[in-house]
Fold:
Amino acid sequence: MKNFIQKIQSFFYLLPKTLSVFFSKAVTRPFPFDSADIPERYRGRVAIREDNCVGCSLCVLDCPASALELEKESKTNFRLLHYRDRCTYCGQCEVSCRFDAIYMQNKYIGPAYDREEYSVVLVDRKED
Amino acid sequence: MKEIITLLVNILIFPGFIFLLALGMGFHWIDRKLIARFEGRIGPPWYQPLADIIKLFAKEDVLPTGTNEIFALLLPLTSFAVTLTAGYHMVGTLSGLFTSFVGDFIMVIFLLSLPSLLFFLGGWTTSGVYSILGGNRSLLQYFSYEVLFIMAICGTAIASGSWSLGGIFLAQNEGSPFIKYQVVGFLMSLAGLIGKLKRSPYDIPKAKSEMVMGPLTEYSGRKLAMWKLADFLQTLAGVALIVYCYFGGLWQPNTIFGYLIFLLLMILLQFVLSIISAVFTRLRIDQLIDLNWRLFIPISLLQNILIIVL
Amino acid sequence: MSKITIPIGPQHPLLKEPLSFRITLEGESVIESTLRLGYVHRGIEKLAQTRTYIKNITLFERVCGICSHIHTTTYCQAVEGLLDLKIPRRGAYIRMLLCELERIHSHLLWLGVLAKNIGLNTVFMYAWRDREIVLDLMEEISGGRVSHAINTIGGVRKDLTQTQIEKISLDLPVLYEKVRELLEIVENDRSFSARTRGIGYLSPQDVKRYCVVGPVARASGVDIDLRRDAPNACYAELDFNSVTMTDGDVWARAVVRIMETLESIGLSQQIVNKIPAGEIAVTAKRKVPEGEFVSRSEAPRGEVIYFVKSDGSQKPKRVKVRTPTLTALITLPAQLEGLQMADVSTVIAGVDLCIACADR
Structure:
């Protein structure tokens, strides 16, 4: 008799679980109308602490996607550019920097209509 | 003059074209929403089937070279027209618009069994590897599950002693609804309906992971929209037929309260269909045919013999 | 009966990645099948010769999306072997933690794909819902859900904080319960067994002949597990069982993978309890001395081998990668003989395919 009950139960094994999921809250969240919690360590936008950067170009050498560019004329006159569409958001620049200047925030990058909006000037120093 | 206008309103608006389409899309939405809630998702909003059909009508219509273009247009059109007629007759009888005549039960069953045949022929016209293989399987399934559905639902006609929908309803009205004594027949006709509609677990002709869409692989644009609409209406008419034949005495025709109870029973049946879709895996074609001829048909045969004897 | 050839071609709703099959049917059973790869070949090994060792870490992470961490771990182990570095124990423990979490996520993904191909969409959604717990944990630790970027030559980059350890200890028992429910469904449900038992059988002699590795071999009774036989990165200090079954069909592979998931959850809990204090990385030189090194480790699908040869400069001379999916793909024509058309999708899903790994 117990064998028979077990046999019948094996046909409809998923049924109780399905009904319990039906009566509880849905797991998915409708994103634009609901918030997404992003943890702190998320590798999002690349940002810089301007006072610490000396233009040593360690980050430029180590970037796997060649997304950083340094136009340097002297120690106090340089520009650091970041191409957001080439960047892979791996975080190698943050690890290679010895002066604790470049870092990643946890904001995500939105879409844009024009490609020019994706080349961002991080540091523009012109003290002569 | 007044009769022509009433006729036009009947055919086009209620209980005709627009009413049936709206109801069919509504039931399809209920199905998708229920399946999504069983899986833990939220599901589509109420206008989703309408948006799908509008989008399909706006797309380009391409067919492979060498197909017979006239047939490829006629088949979905006929399928759509046939299911519309079946639905119109059922809703018309229900609302007392026209009286049911002897033999209209058989007419509705015949009309509801045509779309499966046209489905297979649709795959045969646009020949491609997936269409022909899917068509072969759908033909096998058609032979088996139509027989099961007709045998099971004829049990009610035999018990009521007449071949008209009105007669079946009257027999249940005087006595008790047939569901009380024919539970087995009800379950068998449900299984037959799932096989006819090609829903999971019997959706091997349309299985996306094997035959890309079965016989409908090569259709696109308006023709695909018509196949889908025929599918919605076939579901609607099939569910309405089962509720009519088995739950007859529980509602009174032509009253608001009666309509509401009928709608509620249809939604309940749709719930049962959706939960069966969610719980079982898709069966292989040999397992399907095995199950049908070894288990279901002998049981429904036995049920019919018992009805005739008792 | 006439023969038909069906293409399960490069684009098909069944496959996640492009792969070309030509199956010849006679009636309903398969007589022969041919296989063709190369649709996702990106030339990664050649590309690795033109970039420095540090830039190659990011390159090898993108060989495969599902097993990305294990590729970088094996590569970094090879370069550290060339440099003769010993990484600190806390770094090794963090590497192992992410390896095990990745194994859990890969197996749950595979269960969902198998259920979808059979037709059971509900189990697909349930398995992927449980996978979200693991992905959220990995995002907290490393910063990305699928691409972690936590390895560097000489150790790891980010440390585990105390709040993260507490969160992991809270989430893991919840996950254990849910995976146990999935195991009960796979073992007991009648319609699941009807579609997967007895299909795609591989005998132990075939496993040895085709050099199959991973859960496919363990499901046929051959007990090879690299974490126990050749342990890397402090696996020798933890204790776990390796799961084998003797059935050899798709159902046995499903059971083996889910039980391995349960073992991995236990292992992660051990790692989090036993993690020592200390540094997480040592600095590594940029120029690597001459030599060759072979390093291997156990990916979710089997054994991954990396061979790195250097000639004294900052760029490697040759890197060769052998991934486990290639061994499983070779057995597919043998498994598919005599089956029905409807079982082809079950077999293809049962051998966990990752064509991006196989093509590089």
Q: What stands out?
A: Strands of chain C lie at 3-8, 20-26, 29-36, 151-152, 155-156, 291-299, 302-310, 318-322. The CA atoms of residues 96 and 358 of chain C lie 24 Å apart. Chain C has a mean pLDDT of 88. Chain C touches chain B at residues 4-7, 12-14, 28, 115-122, 125-126, 129, 191-192, 194-195, 340-345 (CB under 8 Å).
